[in-house]
Amino acid sequence: MAKDWLRWHEDYGTAGSSLARRLEVVRAYLERALTEALAGPDGQRRLISMCAGDGRDVLPVLARHPRGRAVRAVLAELDPELARRARETAAELHLPDVDVRTGDAGRADTYRDTAPAHVLLACGVFGNITGADVRRTVAALPSLLVPGGIVIWTRGRGDGGPDASARVADCFAEHGFHELAFTSPSDARFRVGMHRLDGTGSQPVPDRLFTFI
After folding, report:
1. Residue 118: enclosing H or E segment and its boundaries?
2. How far apart are CA 182 and CA 154, in angstroms?
3. Number of Cβ atoms within 10 Å of the Cβ of 204
4. Torsion angle, CA of 62/66/72/76, rounded to 10 degrees?
5. Which of 6, 47, 109, 164 is most buried, taking the most CB atoms under 10 A from its CB?
6. How far apart are the C-alpha atoms of 150 and 194, rounded to whole Å?
7. Centroid of chain to Cα 137
8. Distance in angstroms (rounded) separating the CA atoms of residues 99 and 79
9. CB 207 within 8 A of CB 106
10. What is the number of other CB atoms lying within 10 angstroms of the CB of residue 33?
11. Closest by alpha carbon to 205, among 119, 157, 154, 136?
12. Which secondary-structure segment (H or E) carries 169?
């Protein structure tokens, strides 16, 4: 049975919930990323958000950050209702350079024209795809980023055994990233990481990065 993502998003509104707490961490990391990310020659920064939902992790930060209105952002979301909500919020916050695309974030063509990005969010992705797709996606990220580009990602710790987020962090290290920050609360299952690309990407980006399971 397909997951009800509209209902899943409702937990963001529950004070103290794991999702609400994760959201605050992601927003704080994005504030830092926008402050630290180098701009392009035109002074603009580009941002890609995979599986962006209703944009609540990105849009309020762009609206209040001193550099946020100089960001060209593409938010990719497959669910049409969530994408509609993100568009409405972007309009309400007067963010004309935000492009919300109703499309499959697992296909690189959904946002390939925005690459290379200065900041990329992969939140709510790695816990919903296979390990092989995690590795394929992380391996492709250097080619979707500028040198020094920053990725913010999330992963639950999993059920028993080793913390599943550790494997994701190891994968980033294997593909030329170093860790800038990592949040792993002992009283919650969520994990949030932030990694910076040390080199450049030279591998072609596959058409299909991941498929939700």
Report:
1. strand 117-122
2. 10
3. 9
4. -20
5. 47
6. 7
7. 12
8. 15
9. no
10. 25
11. 136
12. helix 164-174
Identify the structural domains of the chain with CATH numbers, from first to last.
5-197 (3.40.50.150)
Residue 155: the pLDDT is: 98
pLDDT in tens, 38-84: 898 888 999 999 999 999 999 999 999 999 999 999 999 999 999 99
Nearest CA-CA partner of 89 in 59, 44, 67: 59
Assess contact for 172 and 138: CB atoms under 8 A: yes
pLDDT at site 1? 47
Q: Is the pTM of this model over 0.85?
A: yes
**DSSP state string for 46-83:** EEEEET-TTSTTTHHHHHHSTTGGGEEEEEEES-HHHH
Distance CA 7, CA 31 (A): 27
Q: Quick check: 33 and 7 in contact, CB under 8 A?
A: no
Q: Which residue type occupies 40? A: G
3-state secondary structure of 165: helix
Ranges of residues in the chain with a pLDDT under 70 are 1-2
Name every residue whose Cβ is closer than 8 Å to that of residue 88 and which is 6 or more positions away in sequence.
Answer: none
- DSSP element (H, E) containing 134: helix 131-140
